[in-house]
């Protein structure tokens, strides 16, 4: 582990139960906007656990490094 790396936890909002599906927003959107757009698809479907992720600096997630690879590292670490 990198001792200079700061600890960050991304906010995840789970919906449902079953096989996991990770939903990532476009930058500047949060889990609320994505759930609003995606959840209607699952009205009559079961067996899916949706994990809506707030990227760094959006929704319930703290700001993070503004580099794509840092964001990927945060998302992989969260899920």
Architecture blueprint of SSEs:
Layout: E1 12-15, E2 19-23, H1 31-38, E3 48-53, H2 68-78
Parallel strand pairs: 2-3
Antiparallel strand pairs: 1-3
Task: Write structural notes for this entry.
The two termini are 18 Å apart. The model has no long low-confidence stretch (mean pLDDT 88). Strands 1-3-2 form a three-stranded mixed sheet, covered by helices on one side. It has two helices and three strands. It is α+β, with helices and mostly antiparallel strands and 79 residues long. The longest helix has 11 residues, at 68-78. The protein is 24% helix and 19% strand.
Short description:
This protein has helices spanning 31-38, 68-78, and strands spanning 12-15, 19-23, 48-53.
* Secondary structural class: alpha+beta
Average pLDDT confidence is 88
Would you list the SSEs in sequence order as H and E? EEHEH
Number of strands: 3
Output the keywords.
79 residues, alpha+beta, 3 strands
